[in-house]
C-alpha cells in the first residue's frame, strides 16, 4: 500500500503542480492541506487516474501505474459531491464497480452487504439518493469506493457538504474506518482545523508544491517557515529585535505559550480587546502602533481592557525565522 509520487508535474496555464518526490504514510490517515487553488484536487485526480501528468510517475506498491486507466487502478475515490447515480438505489450504486468487474450476482450481494454493514447503512440499501440524508449519501459513496477493496482510499473535501454538527461526527467516523480497515487514506481539505483533528500525517501544499509534511504536532510546533506557522492555528509574529535576538529576523509564538506578567516581561503592551470564549480568554495586546499579539489566558485571570501588561514567553517555545525559513534549534 505504498503510494509514491516521482517528479510529478501538471501544468494548467500559469499554475504548475510540481512534486519532486513524495511517499504517503502507509496504513495511515494522510491529509493534503492547502488553500484554494494550491493543487489539492489536481493531485488527487492524478493519483486516481482521472488526469495524466505532463511528466513523472505514480508508483503503487512498487508498480508504475502512471498509464494504467482509472478503472483498473486499485484506488477508491469519493468525490466532494458524492456523484451517486440518482436513478439507482444505494444497493445498486454500491454494486456498480463490481458489475463493471463482471462478478457474479452472489459475490456482489455478499460484498455489498458486507461493506454496508461496515459503514452502518444496511437498513438504507433500498433507498434512492434523494431519500437519504447528506451523511448517508456520503456513506453510500464511501461504500461504493470501498467495495472493490482498493489499496488506497482518496477523499476529496469529504466534510464540506455536511453541517457543522455532522462534520464532527463524520471526522470521528472516517478516522475509525481507516483504523478498522488499516488502509491508506488520502483526504484533501482546505480546513486546517479539520486536518489537525483527523490526520496522522499532514502534507501542506502551496502553489503546487509540497512545503512540509509531518504529524499535526510537528507541523504546529516545528513549522518550516512563517507561511506554515501562520496558516495553522493562531500565531504571533514579531521582529526578532523586540526580543534582543540577532540570529533571526522574526520571532513567532503561540497565544497559549505566552504568559501575562506584572513585572517587565520580554515585551509589554496595552490590552485592546478581550474575547471571552468559555474555557479561556483571548487578549489582543498592542505592542506598538504597527504590532499586536494575541495571548490566551484562563477565564479567571483578572485583566481589563486598557490595562498595560508585560508578556513573557519561554525561550524554548519561541520560533526563530530567518529569510522565510525557520532557524534550526
Ligand atoms: N481541468 C483544468 N483546466 C484548467 N485549469 C485547471 C484545471 N483543473 C485545475 N486547474 C487550475 O489548477 C489550479 C489548481 O486547481 P485545484 O483544483 O487542484 O486546486 P485546489 O487546491 O483543489 O483548490 P480548491 O480548494 O479551490 O478546490 C487552479 O488554478 C485551477 O484553476
UniProtKB/TrEMBL annotation:
InterPro entries the record matches: AAA+_ATPase, ABC_transporter-like_ATP-bd, ABC_transporter-like_CS, ABC_transpr_MalK/UgpC-like, Mo/tungstate-bd_C_term_dom, P-loop_NTPase, Transp-assoc_OB_typ2
Q: Which Pfam families match?
A: ABC_tran (PF00005), TOBE_2 (PF08402)
| SUPFAM superfamilies per the UniProt record, alphabetical | MOP-like (SSF50331), P-loop containing nucleoside triphosphate hydrolases (SSF52540)
- Organism equals Fervidicoccus fontis (strain DSM 19380 / JCM 18336 / VKM B-2539 / Kam940)
Domain annotation ABC transporter: ranges = 3-232
Cellular compartments per GO CC: ATP-binding cassette (ABC) transporter complex, substrate-binding subunit-containing
Coiled-coil residues are: none
Q: What is this protein called?
A: ABC-type carbohydrate transport system, ATPase component
Q: Name one GO molecular function term.
A: ATP binding
Q: Which UniProt keywords apply?
A: ATP-binding, Nucleotide-binding, Transport
Amino acid at each position: 500500500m505504498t503510494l509514491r509520487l516521482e517528479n510529478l508535474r501538471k501544468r494548467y496555464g500559469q499554475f504548475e503542480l510540481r512534486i519532486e518526490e513524495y511517499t504517503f504514510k502507509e496504513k495511515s490517515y494522510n491529509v493534503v492541506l492547502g488553500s484554494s487553488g494550491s493543487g489539492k484536487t489536481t493531485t488527487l485526480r492524478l493519483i486516481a487516474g482521472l488526469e495524466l501528468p505532463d511528466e513523472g510517475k505514480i508508483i503503487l506498491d512498487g508498480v508504475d501505474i502512471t498509464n494504467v486507466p482509472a478503472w483498473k487502478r486499485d484506488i477508491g475515490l469519493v468525490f466532494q459531491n458524492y456523484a451517486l447515480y440518482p436513478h439507482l438505489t444505494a444497493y445498486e450504486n454500491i454494486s456498480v464497480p463490481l458489475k463493471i468487474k463482471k462478478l457474479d450476482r452472489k459475490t456482489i450481494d455478499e460484498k455489498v452487504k458486507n461493506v454496508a454493514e461496515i459503514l452502518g447503512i444496511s437498513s438504507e440499501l433500498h433507498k434512492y439518493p434523494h431519500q437519504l440524508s447528506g451523511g448517508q449519501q456520503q456513506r453510500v459513496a464511501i461504500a461504493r469506493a470501498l467495495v472493490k477493496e482498493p489499496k488506497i482510499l482518496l477523499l476529496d473535501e469529504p466534510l464540506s457538504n455536511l453541517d457543522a454538527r455532522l462534520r464532527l461526527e463524520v471526522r470521528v467516523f472516517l478516522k475509525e474506518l481507516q483504523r478498522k480497515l488499516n488502509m491508506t487514506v488520502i483526504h484533501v481539505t482546505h480546513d486546517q482545523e479539520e486536518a489537525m483533528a483527523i490526520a496522522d500525517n499532514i502534507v501542506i501544499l502551496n502553489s503546487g508544491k509540497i512545503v512540509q509534511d509531518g504529524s499535526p504536532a510537528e507541523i504546529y510546533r516545528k513549522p518550516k517557515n512563517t507561511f506554515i506557522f501562520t496558516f495553522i492555528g493562531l500565531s504571533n509574529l514579531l521582529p526578532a529585535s523586540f526580543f534582543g535576538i540577532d540570529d533571526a529576523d522574526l520571532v513567532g509564538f503561540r497565544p497559549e505559550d505566552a504568559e501575562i506578567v506584572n513585572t517587565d516581561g520580554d515585551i509589554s503592551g496595552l490590552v485592546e480587546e478581550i474575547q471571552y470564549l468559555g474555557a479561556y480568554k483571548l487578549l489582543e495586546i498592542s505592542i506598538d502602533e504597527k504590532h499586536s499579539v494575541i495571548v490566551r489566558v484562563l477565564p479567571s485571570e483578572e485583566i481589563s481592557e486598557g490595562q498595560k501588561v508585560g508578556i513573557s514567553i519561554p525561550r524554548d517555545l519561541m520560533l526563530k525565522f530567518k529569510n522565510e525559513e525557520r532557524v534550526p534549534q
